[in-house]
What we know:
- The structure holds three protein chains of three kinds.
- By secondary structure, chain A is α+β, with helices and mostly antiparallel strands.
- Chain A has seven helices and twelve strands.
- Chain A has a five-stranded mixed β-sheet, with helices on one face.
- In chain A, strand 1 and strand 2 (95-100) form a beta hairpin.
- Chain B is elongated and about 75 Å long.
- Chain C is mainly alpha-helical.
- Chain C starts with 22 loop residues before the first helix and ends in a 54-residue tail after the last helix.
- At the A-C interface, helix 1, helix 2, strand 7 and strand 9 of A face helix 3, helix 9, helix 10, helix 11 and helix 12 of C.
Amino acid sequence: MAKQVDALYIYLLLVAGVMTALIFLAVLVLAIRYRRRRSHEAQQIEGSLILEITWSIIPLFVMMTFFIWGAVIYFQERTPPADATEVYVVAKQWMWKIEHMEGQREINELHVPTGQNIKLIMTSQDVIHSFFVPAFRLKQDVLPGRYTTLWFKATRPGRYHLFCAEYCGTMHSGMGGDIVVMEPQDYAQWMAGGSSAPLQDTGKVLFSTLGCATCHRFDVQGRGPNLQGIYNKPVLLEDGRTVIADENYVRESIVNPTAKIVSGFKPVMPTFQGIVSDEQLNALVAYVKSLSQPPPGTAGLQSQPVPSGVQPQNMQVQ
Amino acid sequence: MHDSPATTVEHEAHNPALLHHFADAQQQKNAASLGMWLFLVTEIMFFGGMFCAYLVYRLAHFNAFAAGSQQLSIKLGAFNTAVLIVSSVTVVLAVKAAEAGKRKVLVGYLVVTVLLGMTFLVVKGFEYAEKFEKHHVPGPTFGFTDKFDDNGKQISVNPKEAELFFSIYFAMTGMHALHMIIGCGLFSVLAVLAWRGHYTPGYFTPIENAGLYWHLVDIIWIYLFPLLYLISRHS
Amino acid sequence: MATTAIPANQAPKLNYLNNGHSLKSWLLTTDHKRIAILYLISVTVFFFLGGFFAMLIRLELLTPQGDLMQADTYNKVFTMHGMIMVFFFLIPVVPAVLGNFLVPLMIGAKDLAFPRINLLSWYLYVVGGILISHVMLTGGVDTGWTFYTPFSTEYTNTKIVEAGLAVFIAGFSSIFTGLNFIVTIHRMRAPGLTWDRLPLFIWANYATSLVMILGTPVVAITIVLVAVERLFHLGIFDPRLGGDPLLFQHLFWFYSHPAVYIMILPSMGVVNELITCFSRKRIFGYKFIALSSVAIAVFGFLVWAHHMFVAGISLYAAMIFSFLSFSVGVPSAVKVFNWTATLYKGSISYATPMLYAFGFIGLFTMGGLTGLMLATIGIDVHVTDTYFVVAHFHYVMVGGVLMGYLGGLHFWWPKMTGRMYPEAWAKLSALLVFVGFNLTFFPQFILGYVGMPRRYWQYPPEFQTLNVLSTAGASILAAGYLLPMIYFVWSLRYGAIADPNPWAAAGLEWKTTSPPPTFNFDETPVVTWEAYNYDEIPPWERRVPVAR
Lengths: 318, 235, 548
């Protein structure tokens, strides 16, 4: 992806360079060639419709090539592959907290293996930050109150700068770190050194201790919807809308349950805003997602993609 | 205003209200009119930002907005709407009186307009007081337990979203009220000047332009009333 | 009162400058020319204040560590630099200084439509300026000039409300100026001066005024909402209270993008006047340049979310705004081509104003092309919020707006003051500005692409070389700006006395004395000629002597 961005950049540089050189040269040459001399009068030329049209249409076409190439790259950047490994990121003033699905936690460092699609699911605990990796030519703002995502596939081992790119206060310039890309075997070794429980297991524990299981039962119909198999599927709401149960939906349901009531249920769920931290929210979301996964042994696979006929209401952000 | 001590040039007699940089009274009047219309456009853009915020949040949190809206008094809102519409009529009549040179009638209508405006503000004051008592003023004292009554079905809403409704309610009606106060002040000043005979059939532009301002403030209320008071009152 | 008319050739040299010397006659003036001079003094003060902060920034960035000042101080310094430069220099400068002075003169009017509102505009500017200075002296603001929420509403401890009030008040100064210009241009043109005979500087100010009155109120209400949220803890933009931080960004950029067209359009207007005069030619493509000004003003309102490509907007919204952003590039390109074509078969001289015009064309082209790069989303994702953007907007703001302003200031200086500036020093300054500017900001394009984010107090050591180059350039640039301060002031006392039309230029402003009398024209002109009628105006060397 980085190479593609560079290729586009070189194209833009060339066009810009040529245009600049042309204009500079034209001005220079004309200014000298037509400098004021006793012998020469200025010749009045009103204009030329043909020229105006030509030099409007041609730049417009050139600009359209910029647009299309840029849009194609952007579309790819914003569409994570279905098989991407997920990593949760919580930004706060002034550090990056990373949580791998397997439970590894990192501060200001993100270890990833080469050759694997990685999808970051990010939120902020306080103000707007931005996750910026110049080497990958990627950036995504990280917002409080919801998730934004960024995906990439690293190809070369090494350490790459991670910067915060949205001004966030005193140590905005100190909120950096590294993306550590490793060969798969080295990565597996690093992973094995971790000691925390996998994220979804943490979530499972929370699901029980916070009392979610009392209403969201799996055996009989409880006061809340059964959460098995719901991730990324359409949900019919009480007011007739249909939304897709993505990460943002699950997160919102925990902190603002009355925003979207599932059809056939009463709005009795209390809000957990202020009771769960962002990291705990991530764990719960990971757990709910795991309820839609095939049994273990097929680790890394996601649930089916969204059926195409459905119009999602809350797919503002990927 | 224009002091040119050394060169005094021969000077035709003209309406004392004509300013010297204009070629004639018609140009001055046209300029003043265009200026006032442009100013009104800026006011529309100003309120437009708040209408935009309202739109975004109403779409996102309809139930809470409806619940909040049901806590407002339609009777008082409708009364205020009627008061403002009548005041726009009195403004038009004031302009007509100015055009006809009827000084006392002009002053009368200006005063009535101010009184109607103040009536509006007093009623608004009562409404705000009621919101204060019911703890519907956003901030640390806010509390909201009412439900959205959707044709008999009681739907609970998130108090935070209801607080958002009231934030927008106070911001928009507050800004509107501020403009009303300015309008009342304007018309009071004009009433005094009119009493002193400043306005003649040949020159009553300030009355017209202040009238335009008042009509805009009125129109803004006519949008605010249904948007704030009548959410989902369609049955 | 005496009513004798005084023949012009016996009249004492009475002009707007010496028509009343008391402080009151200046501070209570309604003469648009005096108000322009009042603005000239105030914007220059703020320019140097903003420039002082810029110097602090560049000094800190000489080294990778934050060693000159604390992080919080640095954050306040770049915020104040931005706020002062944007709201108190770039937005008012050309309309309030050159526009105020020239608009009535160029259309043959005695004054603007609303002279007292014009004075009010200046006082609003001054009050806003005093407030922002007070903020600066009592701790400053540290949110960046863009004061994004929720940082600005819930997290910072600095004086946001007061700074917001300062900008709010200055915004009304802008609105009233725009209102004044529109009414003046519509209603007070001299007989015979139809729209297609207007100098393009007037068209430019007209388009700018449209943007001023439509856009500024939106930022005004945004500031009100931020203040309200901050003071009363309402949840308009804070997600913890149910609000949406992106709504702030939309409202903010809805004004702040058109704001940059408020800055550049009048400068483009100046360039028209300079290119035609110093090539002794009519402008190439008059209609197209006039219409492109209006097109830029209109399209400028449709592109705001290109500042938000990575902010969390939907993929489709991003694509639409990218597409629309290119549309603004076309009228700008059309202007550049038309100016270049105007040079063809002209009779070109190289007075300082023309040098600034050349500089404008070159640097605006570069700034504009890098803008197109930013509109290309695939690139923007990488370079947004880095020094690439900083370089881009300084190219168009400083390489564009400021060069246009300086060119105009030099061009109309004799008209405004009755004195000529020293040409050799002026040429030297123009050269210093051009060289210093490029050295300061070109390295920043590279810095941005290799990954240095903006608003960084400290940075990784590998970025140091480019930063040092940039700071070196800034010192040259500073010299280039200080010199005109000195020689312009010098010229007021010692400069050569100026002819009414020292450039043999077209335009009604040159048909009156330098400086003009208070009421501009002894008799209202009647216009029967096209704009830029250089075929009818002999150059300076062959001018027809006029009875003085």
